[in-house]
Design goal:
Elements: E1 12-14, E2 17-19, H1 50-56, H2 60-66, H3 76-86, H4 99-107, H5 110-124, H6 128-149, H7 155-160, E3 166-171, E4 174-179, E5 188-191, E6 200-212, H8 214-217, E7 223-224, E8 243-244, E9 249-261, H9 267-275, H10 283-314, H11 317-331, H12 336-352, E10 356-358, H13 363-369, E11 372-375, E12 387-392, H14 400-412, H15 419-425, H16 433-436, E13 440-448, E14 453-459, E15 465-471, H17 473-478, E16 480-485, E17 488-491, H18 494-500, H19 502-509, E18 513-521, E19 536-545, H20 552-561, E20 565-569, H21 574-584, E21 591-593, H22 594-599, H23 602-611, E22 614-616, H24 620-632, E23 637-640, H25 647-652, E24 655-659, H26 664-669, E25 672-674, H27 679-720, H28 728-741, H29 763-791, H30 800-822, H31 836-851, H32 858-861, H33 870-894
Parallel strand pairs: 11-20, 11-23, 16-19, 20-22, 21-22, 23-24, 24-25
Antiparallel strand pairs: 1-2, 3-4, 3-5, 5-9, 6-7, 6-8, 6-9, 10-25, 12-19, 13-14, 14-15, 15-18, 16-17, 18-19
Helix pairs in contact: 4-6, 5-6, 6-12, 10-11, 10-27, 11-28, 12-27, 13-27, 14-15, 20-27, 23-24, 27-29, 27-30, 28-30, 28-31, 29-30, 29-33, 30-31, 30-33
Length: 898
C-alpha cells in the first residue's frame, strides 16, 4: 500500500538553521469544522495515553484546567496527594524473577518432564543404571540453559536506570530541582538544552525548542516542538508537534511544559510493560515442542500395547511391565536435550570468535533459520553521523567556492555549533584551512526563526568586506536578486526561479538536508544589520546526509545469497530512507509508512509486509506489529536495533540482535549482541546457526525414524514370538551404546549446501522423514527375525537367548551405521564423510557390538555366541539397509519432501 509524502513539509529547523528535508508543498489551511480525534496507536502493548492525545488538542488554559493545575504549578500538598494515586514516576515497577522461577521455566519442558518421570520409574523398579543415565542428561541440559539465560529478565530493570536524574519543577510557585520519580501529572516544568524529558509532557511555551527523539524513532536530526494546539491527526505519537515524550532529550532551546502522564502510563512506560511479558515462543521452541509431543504420542500408543500384548501372550505380567518400561526408555530420545544444549553451546563459542555474543542459546538455531532480517537504518546501514555530502553550484556541480563560503560561516559564527556546522568543519573535502586565518570576522547576524537564516560579515584577504549567508533555501531565495553560475552573475528573473530550484528540489527529494549559500559585497563598513540581508547573490547549496556504510551493500548481497531478505524498519522520514535504500541496493517500492501500518488489519499487514522492503515513519508499536505480521506468515524473523524504541521489536522477533554500543535496554532485550554494528558480521553468524541446526536435525531424524521403525518391530515380534524379543537389560544396553555413538554429532562436519539456505523448523518434513525412513529398519528387523527363526531354529523358547542376541547385534549395527546416510543429502562415505570423532565412535560401537556376545559380560546381559553363518548374512543386511535408505532418501529429496 503506497501513500503520498507527509503533508507537513515545513522545514526542520536545527539549532540555528532551517533545514529542508522534503521539498513538497506545505499543509493546506485547517478546515473550520472540529478537528478529528487523534488515533491511538494500535498495539497490544505499546500505546500513547489518550490523555496525551487529548492534551495535544487543547489550548493552554483549557489544558491546565483539565489537569487541575495552574501556571504557578502544584502545591507540595497537592503533588503528594496525586503521587499516592499515580505512584512513582518509574517506567518499570515489576519485580525481577528469582532464580527458582527461571529454573522452573527451563524444567517445564515436556521432554525434560518425561525423562525425569522415566528416570524415577526406572529407579523405583530397581534399574539404577538407566535412571542414572537419564538423570545426568536432564541435569546437564538444564544447567547449560540456566547459566546462559540467567540475565534474560534484566530488561525492565535497566529501564529504571534512566530516571536517576532530576528535573526543574515549579512547586508552590517556585522552581526547584526534584528527582524524576517524584513528578506527578499537573506539574509545571522548565526545559533547557541537555535536559531529559521527565514524562509525557505538553509544551506550554517554547523558544527554539529542538528535541532529540532518536531513542524513540531512530531519526538522526532533532525535531522542533511548538506550543500551539495540534488538532491534526497523526499516525505516530512522536509526530505530535507540541508534545515531548519520556526518554527523549532537549537538544537546544528552552520551554515550559506541563506533565500529562508519568511512569508506566507514558509512551516509554508502555514499552517497559511489553518487555516484562514472557517472550513469544520462537520457531525453534515451537518446533522442538511439536517434535517432543509427537514422540510422546507415539510412546503413549506403543508402550501400553507392548505391555498388554506381552502380558496376554506370555502370561508374565511382571516381565511384560519391565519390558514395556525398557521399550519406553528406548523410544525416548533422551539424548535430545543434551545434544541440543551441546550443539548450541558449541555454536555460541564458534559465534563468539566471529564477534557475535550469544545471550540465549535457542537463538542460535533461529539465527540460522532466519529468512527475513528487519533492521533499523541509522547506524546499521548508515554511519550514524551527519556528514557534508555535497557542496554544489546551482547546476549541481561540486565547487570549492560554495564549500569555502559555508566553512567561513560555520567557523566564525559564535552561537552553539550544531550538527551541520560540525559536519562542515569536519569535512575532509576542505583543504583551505590556511586560508581561513587570512579572513577577519567583522560582525554577524545570528540565526532566528523568523528569518530562518544567519550571516557573518568578513573581510577577505584582499581587504574587501563581504556578507556570507546560509539558511533555508526557500527563505534565502526571497532575499536574492542575482545568482552566480560558472563565474557569471545573472539577475534572479522570476521566470528563472523554478529552474534555479531544480537542484535544490532534487537534493531534497533524495533525502538530503539542504542549506542555500549566498553572498553580498558590502560597502566599507565594520557592522551589518538585518536589512543588509537583501540583494544577495545565490551561490549554491550544501547538502548533508547520514551516509551508508561501505560494507552495507556487500553485506546485504551476501545475506541475499544465503536466502535472507533484508527489510528496513525505521522511524526516519521516507525521503532519507528511500535514498539510503537506493545507495545500498535495496528496493524502496512499494513502501509502507506508519500511517499505512496504522490503518491495516493484522491480516492486511501480513500480506503487505511480505512484499515490502522499506517501512518508514514507524513508531515502536508499528515495528512490533510488522515483526509479528511477518512471523504470522511462517517467516523466521530477525530484528536488529540499538535504541530504546527498538526494544519491543527485539522481544517480538524470533531473534533479537543488538550491538555492544546499544542502549542497555536494547542489549538486555536482545538474544545476540554484535561486537561490531555491521551487517557483514551477521553473515558468519548465520552460517554457524545453520550448522547448529543441521546437527540437531541429524539426531532428531536419526532418533525419530529409528524409534518409529522399532515400534513396528517390537509390536510384531511381541505378537507372534513365544518369548520376549529382547530382554529388558538388552534393550537398555542397546539404547545406551547407540546413544554413546551419537555424542560426537554436535561437532560433526556439515555439507555446504546444508548452510546455503535458511532451514526453519518444519515438523511436517520431519514426519515425512520418519514415516518413509523409519519402516525401512523394520523391514530388515523382520528379515533378521526370519533368519533367526527359520535358519537358526529359534522357535524353541530354550533358544530365546540366541534370537535375542541376533536381534541385539543387528539392531545396534544398523542404528549406529545409518547415521552416516542420514547426516548428509549426498552419497555417504564417497561424496560426504563424517567428522573423525563420529567415525571413530561408529566403528567402536559396532566393534563392541560384535565383541559383546563373546565377552565376559555376555552372560550378565543374556547374550550368547552367534553362528558363523550369521555374520555374512548381517553384512548383506547392512549393505541392503544402507542402499535402500539412500534410495528412499534421494527420492524424498527429488520430490522436495525433506
Amino acid at each position: 500500500m503506497m501513500t503520498t509524502p507527509e503533508a507537513d513539509s515545513t522545514a526542520a529547523l536545527i539549532d540555528g538553521h532551517a533545514i529542508s528535508g522534503t521539498g513538497v508543498p506545505g499543509p493546506p489551511a485547517r478546515p473550520e469544522e472540529p478537528p478529528p480525534a487523534l488515533p491511538k496507536v494500535k498495539s497490544q502493548n505499546i500505546h500513547v495515553s489518550p490523555a496525551v492525545l487529548d492534551a495535544a488538542q487543547k489550548d493552554g488554559d483549557d489544558l491546565l484546567k483539565s489537569l487541575r493545575t495552574t501556571a504557578a504549578g502544584l502545591t507540595q500538598t497537592e503533588a503528594e496527594d496525586r503521587a499516592r494515586t499515580t505512584g512513582p514516576n518509574e517506567v518499570a515497577q515489576e519485580h525481577r524473577q528469582g532464580w527458582p522461577i527461571r529454573l522452573l521455566k527451563i524444567i517445564r519442558n515436556p521432554l525434560v518432564i518425561l525423562l525425569a518421570t522415566l528416570s524415577a520409574i526406572s529407579f523405583a523398579t530397581g534399574d539404577a543404571r538407566a535412571a542414572t543415565v537419564m538423570a545426568v542428561m536432564v541435569a546437564l541440559s538444564v544447567a547449560l540453559r540456566f547459566m546462559q539465560e540467567a540475565r534474560a529478565d534484566a530488561a525492565a530493570a535497566k529501564l529504571k536506570a534512566m530516571i536517576h536524574v532530576t528535573a526543574t519543577v515549579v512547586r508552590d510557585g517556585a522552581a526547584r530541582e526534584m528527582p524524576l520519580r517524584d513528578l506527578v501529572p499537573g506539574d509545571i516544568i522548565t526545559l533547557s538544552a541537555g535536559d531529559m524529558i521527565p514524562g509525557d509532557v505538553r509544551v506550554l511555551s517554547a523558544k527554539d525548542l529542538f528535541v532529540s527523539q532518536g531513542s524513540l524513532t531512530g531519526e538522526s536530526f532533532p525535531v522542533e516542538k511548538f506550543h500551539d494546539a495540534d488538532a491534526k491527526a497523526v499516525t505516530s505519537p512522536t509526530e505530535i508537534k507540541n508534545t515531548c515524550f519520556m526518554g527523549t532529550s532537549v537538544e537546544s532551546g528552552t520551554a515550559t511544559a506541563v506533565v500529562v502522564t508519568t511512569g508506566v502510563r507514558t509512551y516509554l512506560g508502555s514499552m517497559a510493560g511489553s518487555l516484562t511479558e514472557d517472550r513469544t515462543p520462537t520457531s525453534f521452541d515451537q518446533g522442538l515442542n511439536h517434535f517432543t509431543w509427537l514422540m510422546i504420542k507415539l510412546m503413549a500408543v506403543m508402550v501400553p500395547l507392548v505391555f498388554l500384548i506381552n502380558g496376554f501372550t506370555k502370561h508374565d505380567w511382571r516381565g511384560a511391565f519391565f519390558f514395556a518400561m525398557a521399550v519406553a526408555v528406548g523410544l525416548t530420545p533422551e539424548m535430545l536435550p543434551m545434544i541440543v544444549s551441546v550443539c548450541l553451546s558449541k555454536g555460541a563459542l564458534a559465534m563468539s570468535r566471529k564477534k557475535v555474543i550469544v545471550k540465549r542459546l535457542n537463538a542460535i538455531q533461529n539465527f540460522g533459520g532466519m529468512d527475513v532480517l528487519c533492521t533499523d537504518k541509522t547506524g546499521t546501514l548508515t554511519e550514524d553521523r551527519v556528514v557534508l555530502q555535497r557542496h554544489c553550484n546551482l547546476a549541481g556541480r561540486e565547487t570549492e567556492e560554495v564549500l569555502l563560503d559555508g566553512y567561513l560561516i560555520s567557523y566564525f559564527q559564535t552561537g552553539l555549533k550544531n550538527l551541520l556546522d560540525r559536519a562542515i568543519l569536519d569535512s575532509p573535502d576542505f583543504h583551505q584551512q590556511a586560508l581561513i586565518t587570512k579572513y577577519k570576522k567583522l560582525d554577524e547576524l545570528p540565526f532566528d526563526f523568523t528569518r530562518r537564516m544567519m550571516s557573518v560579515l568578513v573581510e577577505t584577504p584582499e581587504g574587501k568586506p563581504i556578507l556570507l549567508t546560509k539558511g533555508a533555501p526557500e527563505e534565502v531565495f526571497h532575499q536574492c536578486s542575482h545568482f552566480e553560475l560558472d563565474g557569471k552573475v545573472s539577475p534572479m528573473d522570476p521566470g528563472l526561479i523554478v529552474g534555479l530550484k531544480e537542484e535544490y528540489d532534487r537534493l531534497s527529494n533524495d533525502g538530503f538536508r539542504v542549506l542555500a549559500v549566498a553572498t553580498k559585497e558590502m560597502p566599507a563598513k565594520q557592522a551589518c544589520a538585518k536589512d543588509d540581508e537583501g540583494d544577495l547573490v545565490l551561490k549554491g547549496y550544501v547538502a548533508f546526509l547520514d551516509p551508508p556504510k561501505n560494507t552495507a551493500g556487500p553485506a546485504i548481497e551476501a545475506l541475499h545469497k544465503h536466502g535472507v531478505a533484508v527489510k528496513i524498519l525505521t522511524g526516519d522520514n521516507q525521503l532519507i530512507s528511500r535514498k539510503v535504500c537506493k545507495d545500498v541496493g535495496l528496493a524502496s517500492d512499494p513502501m509502507l509508512l506508519g500511517g499505512d501500518v496504522e490503518k491495516m488489519s493484522d491480516v492486511e499487514l501480513a500480506e503487505a509486509a511480505e512484499k515490502t522492503t522499506l517501512f518508514a515513519r514507524l513508531s515502536p508499536a508499528h515495528k512490533q506489529r510488522v515483526i509479528r505480521a511477518l512471523r504470522s506468515k511462517g517467516h523466521v524473523v530477525g530484528f536488529m536495533g540499538d535504541g530504546i524504541n527498538d526494544a519491543p521489536a527485539l522481544r517480538a522477533a524470533d531473534i533479537g540482535i543488538s550491538v555492544d554500543t546499544a542502549t542497555d535496554i536494547a542489549k538486555e532485550s536482545a538474544d545476540l549482541i554484535l561486537l561490531e554494528k555491521d551487517l557483514m558480521v551477521l553473515e558468519g553468524g548465520v552460517v554457524e546457526g545453520r550448522k547448529v541446526f543441521a546437527n540437531i536435525l541429524k539426531y532428531i531424524r536419526m532418533g525419530a525414524s529409528s524409534n518409529f521403525g522399532n515400534m513396528f518391530s517390537v509390536l510384531g515380534a511381541s505378537a507372534f514370538l513365544p518369548f520376549l524379543p529382547m530382554a529388558p537389560i538388552q534393550v537398555l544396553t542397546n539404547n545406551l551404546l547407540y546413544d554413546f555413538s551419537q555424542v560426537p554429532i554436535p561437532i560433526d562436519a556439515v555439507d555446504d549446501e546444508q548452510v546455503s539456505r535458511p532451514r526453519p523448523w518444519n515438523i511436517d518434513e520431519i514426519k515425512r522423514f520418519i514415516f518413509f525412513i523409519g519402516p525401512i529398519s523394520s523391514i530388515f528387523d523382520y528379515t533378521t527375525f526370519f533368519v533367526m527363526l527359520w535358519v537358526f531354529k529359534c522357535w524353541d523358547p530354550s533358544r530365546a537367548p540366541l534370537f535375542q542376541t541376533g536381534w541385539f547385534v543387528e539392531s545396534l549395527m544398523t542404528q549406529t551405521l545409518i547415521i552416516h546416510v542420514i547426516r548428509t543429502n549426498k552419497i555417504p562415505f564417497i561424496q560426504s564423510r563424517a567428522s573423525w570423532p563420529l567415525t571413530v565412535t561408529t566403528l567402536s560401537i559396532m566393534a563392541l557390538g560384535i565383541w559383546l556376545p563373546y565377552s565376559p559380560l555376555a552372560s550378565s546381559l543374556g547374550l550368547m555366541g552367534l553362528p558363523r553363518m550369521y555374520w555374512p548374512i548381517l553384512l548383506l543386511t547392512l549393505l541392503a539397509y544402507v542402499g535402500l535408505t539412500q534410495v528412499i532418501k534421494v527420492w524424498l529429496l527429488r520430490k522436495k519432501w525433506i
